[in-house]
Design a protein that fits this description.
304 residues, alpha/beta, TIM Barrel, eight-stranded parallel β-barrel
Amino acid sequence: MIKNELSTAEIVKKAWRKRIVIPGFNIPYLPMMEPVVRALHDTDTFGLIMVARLEWIKFESGSMKSIRDEYEKLKDLRYTRLHLDHVPVIDEDNLLTDFESIIAEAIELGYDSVMIDGSRLSLSDNIMKTRRIVELAHTAGIAVESELGAVMGHESGPLPPYEELFASGKGFTSPQEAKRFVEETQTDWLSVAIGNIHGAISAATRTEKKIEARLAISHLEIINESVNIPLVLHGGTGIAKEYLMQSFKQGIAKINIATAIRQPYEKLMNTSVTAAQEAVYNEMLDIVHNQLEIAGSADRILKD
């Protein structure tokens, strides 16, 4: 059982040391939260409930406050914490965002951890802006996730062919840059690009089957040795299980999952919200038991 007094940072660090992955589940539609929390409870699994900026802009999560309020009704601190996912400095439409005020609001609302995504910036700018957020969040006693490298998929327009991207290593996180980035920002967790991609979010493509991505495990191993902090894998849906299991041994302590639970919900939401919620619940059970094999993690994370 997760002790209520432990912070998210402490929980993630314990999981990382034990090589147990913590899944984070994005909530683009408020009714999705209930089956996600229920499934975590029913499987004795620890996970993060997450919302990203694009989910209140391009989907129907409402706002950070809406998500917080819904979470307060459903939360079970033995199994969940609330995380602010992607707040980009430059968004998927290449527009500057008011990232500092968004993250400050999340901290004020009581989010347990936050993410700044400066991956579209130069290395020096990413370091500078991430360090500002780390100082802000650490003053409030909460953890910061940041990103280095280009986890693609949210951009407007089609992606280059995936095999071409993977073979070239375009956008992959540099181990040397990661070492400098972590030392200079003091970020708690680092999201890395190692072949993983986000699910499409445009109205025209969001229902399509996600590309089956691979992971450059040897590259991840070098990053892991370089930074020695918990690493995060975005775009967790659709990656072959063999790659996932290897990544958890090489520093991935948190995996983000969105498309896998969003698409079943969207398929049924206009017919029956209850049926859509049950589809999410059933997918959650499959993710926890079969895809990630982490049922029972809430107890295992804290065992001495």
